[in-house]
Design goal:
260 residues, mainly beta
């Protein structure tokens, strides 16, 4: 996974999963509120209340310098651009997503959602309910409730992980096909992320022994994972009152984001 893609994966993984306009740029109707968070124009309001806006994403290491990406997010959707490609999700009207690898054509991902009552706190996107994401070769289902998240994916015969030319492999975390994933909250904590505040455990029925403990408290996210990828180990991310997020990945990569 490219380092800039890892930054976007972290941003999306902690809850920035929603929609955007179909072209790169500021997400449409940024001032519209959603059931996942509060209303607010892009860049307006303190980040403990609303994460709406355009975010510059950075990943830095002493060995190879820095790389960057851009994440645009509002109640209408998100638009993520990295060196690996461009992912857009439109949450208005008929939900849809497009993915394009760098230098490649755009591929469509069909999005179906039956909404559910989940308070995402400062996250401006409506996240709750059941989701089905379908590309040419992959289908993933996800159910997001206030105390649990479950999901699974199925792809072409022989495809071990979700990831093909029409799927944003490397830009969002890529699960294994054919297994059931469960993220469950074991205790609640006060957090700017609303119903997601607390201590969570994440794993699957793959028998691999891989999994994570995830803590969302106040303005911080901490993960402690046993995994065969860049998330193995402890990661801590804090969102400051100045709308700057910063942290360090298990591999020692410094990641940060700043709202414009």
């Amino acid at each position: 996974m490219r380092r800039s893609d890892l930054v976007v994966a972290i941003a999306l993984g902690v809850g920035v999963l929603g929609g955007c306009s179909s072209t790169q740029g500021t997400p449409g109707a940024a001032g519209a509120g959603g059931s996942g968070g509060s209303a607010g124009a892009a860049g307006a309001g303190s980040c403990d209340k609303d994460l709406t806006g355009a975010w510059d994403l950075y990943a830095t290491s002493l060995a190879s310098g820095s790389v960057d990406g851009v994440l645009l997010v509002s109640a209408s959707g998100f638009d993520a651009t990295t060196s690996g490609g461009h992912l857009v999700y439109n949450a208005q009207g008929t939900k849809s997503a497009t993915w394009a690898r760098s230098g490649g054509g755009a591929r469509s991902i069909t999005v179906q959602n039956t909404s559910g009552a989940v308070n995402g706190g400062s996250i401006p996107l409506a996240l709750g309910g059941s989701w089905t994401l379908t590309s040419i070769s992959e289908t993933c289902t996800l159910n997001v409730a206030s105390g649990s998240v479950t999901g699974n994916c199925h792809g072409r015969a022989g495809d071990h992980n979700v990831g093909a030319g029409d799927w944003p492999y490397g830009t969002i975390p890529s699960p294994e096909n054919g297994f059931n994933y469960l993220v469950s909250r074991t205790s609640t904590l006060t957090s700017q992320f609303g119903d997601f505040g607390g201590v969570w455990t994440a794993g699957s029925d793959s028998g691999s022994g891989q999994g994570c403990s995830i803590t969302l408290e106040g303005n911080s996210i901490t993960t402690n994972c046993q995994a065969s990828n860049e998330f193995n180990g402890v990661m801590h991310l804090t969102i400051g009152g100045d709308c700057v997020a910063s942290g360090t990945t298990p591999s020692g990569l410094e990641v940060s984001a700043r709202r414009r």
